[in-house]
Design goal:
By secondary structure, this protein is an alpha+beta fold. It has 1 helix and 4 strands; from the N terminus they run E-E-E-E-H. Strand 2 (19-24) and strand 3 (29-38) form a beta hairpin. The model has no long low-confidence stretch (mean pLDDT 89).
């Protein structure tokens, strides 16, 4: 998405309802939306959506790679 300024990505666990989705259009506008659920005695649900520009994508990728490196070591 950062290079082509088009596409989408869905970050979601296999067996849970949480998700974060990023969509970028050819003008560089990134729409980020998601839902987070807490199932407990006091259940909570957060649904969000906002827009930003493509400058957030490269730092996001770098941070995700760093998290993966921590998980592997």
């Amino acid at each position: 998405m950062d290079r082509a300024l088009t596409g989408s990505a869905l970050l979601k666990p296999l067996y849970e309802d949480h998700f974060i989705e990023l969509q970028v259009d050819n003008s560089g506008r990134v729409t980020i939306r998601g839902e987070l659920h807490e199932y407990s005695a006091s259940p909570q649900h957060l649904r969000f959506q906002f827009e930003t520009d493509q400058t957030c994508l490269a730092p996001l990728v770098a941070d995700l790679r760093a998290c993966l490196q921590l998980a592997v070591t």
